[in-house]
Amino acid sequence: MNGERFRRSPACSPSVKAPPADGPKTLGNHLPSRSGSSHRRFSPAAMDVLRRIKTLYEAGLSTEEVRERLKADFPSVIEVEAVPAGGVPPKSTAEPVRALLVELGQIRLEVQAASKAAEKVQQEVTTIRERFNRHEEREIERARKLDELIAELRERKRRPWWARIFRRSTRKDLGILWRNFSNM
Fold first, then answer.
1. Which residue among 21, 35, 160, 163 has the highest number of C-beta atoms inside a 10 angstrom radius?
2. In this entry, which stretches build a coiled coil (predicted)?
3. Averaged confidence pLDDT in the chain
């Protein structure tokens, strides 16, 4: 096929007596051809396929029916690019794979280290929250005791002046209040 002369599709049209294809190329897999810069070139063997397509369309068949008939009548052309004679040495494919495996192992270790660090940070956050909650509870308890002491002192201020002066337990009560306040 390399020695055969190829024709461009507009050049094929006069010999087949069909207009050049402007629409999508749906039947092209049965035509041996080469794609050039801006034109598709067909081999002389493609002329039979083009004539057959023309007669099927003239018979009133749809594109799907034409495609089915072409599958039955002509083999499909599959273009395969040739592999260079040298090929690829097996070591050259194994080395990049090994390098990728090593890199993946390093990435896996980094991810594990990052997850351990994240877990440690999460534990620290939990510890800090617990400490904060305990501190907050102590502050609430201290505020409650202070409110009680202030209420008791106000109650003592409401006593008449002679009860405050002649009462001997006043110093004792103040000592109890002071001890309660200092224990907070």
1. 21
2. 104-156
3. 75
